[in-house]
Design goal:
The structure holds two protein chains of two kinds. Chain A is an alpha/beta fold. Chain A is built from eleven helices and eleven strands. In chain A, helix 2 links the parallel strand 1 and strand 2. The longest helix of chain A is centred in the first third of the chain and has 17 residues. Chain B has a domain of about 170 residues: MetI-like fold (Orthogonal Bundle), CATH 1.10.3720.10. Chain B is about 80% helix and about 0% strand. Chain B has twelve helices and two strands; from the N terminus they run ααββαααααααααα. Chain B has a two-stranded antiparallel sheet. Classes of the chains: A alpha/beta, B mainly alpha.
């Protein structure tokens, strides 16, 4: 206890005297935000030598849960939570992301319509021949429910035809990470999956393919122009508005600064367009 | 003299305290698990929980049926044992009776190494090799009951092999000598005398292996496919009780979280029953050996 008080005193002194930030912090949440978080934290720690931050990539839902429970002080999220879900969480948009639809290399398709994609994930289409491919069973690769990408994909692709409540086909491989989707799609013939655009490379390198959706390619220009149908915003969440001199506030400001946005770009996401 | 007694008393007490600690741990885990999980049954009937296949804990009208996962657990475990028992028995017999010292030593340490490999490595191996092989031989996505059972079979092998070997070696020498003296060949002695005499021990080993298989999480998670469905045949995807807990744990709240603890209770009861069976089997095997020695 004494140590803690002393530490707090030192922190307060340091904060007031030099406006220098220090301490150990745990952030966490979306696996999609993780590449931005890792790179930004590395740079942020260099700028503020007294600060130690860790980011646990557990999924957007898990991140929000941990944030509201006070286990972490900042959460990354790739889901647009409703006000009910957020409670006193405060979201800030830090980047844009498109979701890439990826298929195994044995599926020689270039394009798929959003409507067909919805039907595949709802379970109404289960053979590639129904969407112009070979006569082969579709192996659907999905994420688990804690994933923000899981919620976002339903919202962006399936909601229009199948309503608000998530009702993915249950006949799907359930994976826990973007990377696992990439690995499973790359190695399983006849498979289809969705990943953050930054992860599509992993599938392409392994010989897989990235599909156009409604004849629009998943490119940065198309996401910014809002032409590509499966795109979304990435957020950082704090519990309540962050205090003025807090590390959380400084970190969010850093990510939104030109340097931070350059990091966003360097990990293959799309910087927030200037208004 | 007095000092010595005091010292012995203290040592005894200390050891007893340590022993009590492990008992305490079991009790704490049991109480905790039941306390967190049982309240589910105020909202969902036991029959629905165990007998329904509708697992939709986040739907508007939530469904908490774990029948598919119970079936999945037993399906995968049973199949794994069907692969592992014949091979494990064969290796155990070979090590106890047939192998030369040198090869026995090499195989022995390899088997021990097999037991020490972390399950996540088995999972990676499963994704990279086993799911590819089962896919090309039997079709489907490769993430299936079959792949999961093969991985589990390899993981349970060490248990079955070592227990078989130990039980065979524990068979009294006289039995073997008697059999050979009566003119039986070595092979006849193994099949007709040694294995039956070691039967209870071997069964205990198989059940121990079954316990390991049913509780395994990481490796099956990586190759089972994890779809919350009743498994459809060998090439269908499977989700076991353990996979269900770990998949949903990170984000579950409220009744959903309680239902995961309830899933834990089911798993716990299964393991408990298995362990009790092992103890009964072992007791019987000990009694049999003593009887054999006396006669």
């Amino acid at each position: 206890m004494k140590k803690l008080t002393a530490l707090a005193l030192v922190l307060a002194l340091a904060g007031s005297a030099f406006a220098q930030l220090s301490g150990t912090f745990t952030f966490g949440g979306s696996t999609t935000v993780a590449p931005i978080a890792y790179a930004a934290i590395e740079q942020f720690q260099k700028n503020n030598p007294g600060v130690k931050i860790s980011y646990e990539a557990t999924g957007s839902g898990a991140g929000l849960k941990a944030l509201l429970a006070g286990q972490i002080s900042l959460a990354g999220s790739s889901a647009e939570f409703s006000a009910d879900q957020l409670m006193d969480g405060k979201p800030v948009v830090i980047a844009l992301d498109g979701l890439s639809v990826v298929v195994n290399k044995n599926i020689k398709l270039a394009n798929i319509s959003r409507a067909n994609l919805a039907k595949i994930y709802h379970g109404d289409i289960s053979n590639w021949k129904d969407v112009g491919g070979p006569d082969l069973k579709i192996v659907v690769v999905n994420r688990d429910e804690s994933s923000g990408t899981y919620a976002a994909f339903w919202e962006l692709v399936c909601l229009k035809d199948f309503g608000k409540a998530v009702a993915y086909t249950k006949d799907a491989i359930v994976t826990k990470e973007n990377g696992e989707v990439a690995a499973k799609v790359a190695s399983t013939p006849g498979s289809i999956g969705y990943v953050g655009m930054a992860f599509a490379d992993q599938v392409i390198k392994a010989g897989g393919r990235e599909l156009q959706v409604d004849a629009v390619a998943p490119t940065v220009a198309n996401v910014i122009a809002k032409k590509y149908p499966i795109s979304r915003s990435l957020f950082l969440l704090t519990k309540g508005a962050p205090a003025a001199a807090s590390v959380e506030k400084a970190f969010i400001d850093f990510v939104l600064s030109p340097k931070g946005q350059a990091i966003v770009k360097s990990v293959d996401y799309i910087p927030v367009p200037k208004k | 003299m007095k000092h010595r007694k005091l010292f012995e008393r203290t040592a005894e007490g200390l050891l007893f305290a340590c022993a009590a600690l492990s008992v305490l741990a079991v009790i704490l885990i049991t109480v905790f698990l039941f306390q967190r999980g049982l309240s589910l049954f105020q909202k969902v009937s036991v029959l629905e929980f165990l007998g329904s296949t509708r697992w939709e804990p986040t739907a508007k009208v939530p469904g908490y049926g774990i029948l598919s996962f119970i079936v999945g657990s037993f399906y995968v475990t049973g199949l794994a044992l069907a692969f592992a028992v014949p091979i494990g028995l064969a290796v155990g017999i070979f090590l106890a009776e047939l192998a030369e010292k040198r090869s026995s030593r090499i195989i022995h340490s390899t088997v021990e190494l097999l037991a020490g490999i972390p399950s996540v490595i088995y999972g990676l191996f499963g994704i990279a090799l086993i799911s590819t092989i089962t896919r090309s031989l039997f079709g489907g996505s490769g993430y299936s009951v079959l792949s999961a059972s093969i991985v589990l079979a390899i993981m349970t092998l060490p248990t079955i092999i070592s227990v078989t070997e130990v039980s065979l070696r524990a068979v009294p020498r006289e039995l073997k000598e008697g059999s050979l003296a009566l003119g039986a060949t070595h092979w006849q002695t193994i099949v007709r005398v040694l294995v039956p005499a070691a039967r209870s021990g071997i069964i205990a080993g198989v059940i121990l292996g079954m316990g390991r298989a049913i509780g395994e999480t990481m490796a099956v998670l990586m190759v089972g496919g994890n779809a919350p469905l009743m498994p459809k045949g060998l090439t269908g995807m499977v989700r076991t009780l353990t996979m269900n807990i770990i998949t949903d744990m990170s984000y579950a709240t409220g009744d959903h979280l309680t239902s995961l603890f309830a899933t834990g209770i089911v798993l716990f009861v299964f393991i408990l029953v298995l362990n009790l069976t092992v103890q009964v089997a072992l007791k019987r095997s000990m009694a049999a050996t003593e009887g054999g020695g006396g006669a």
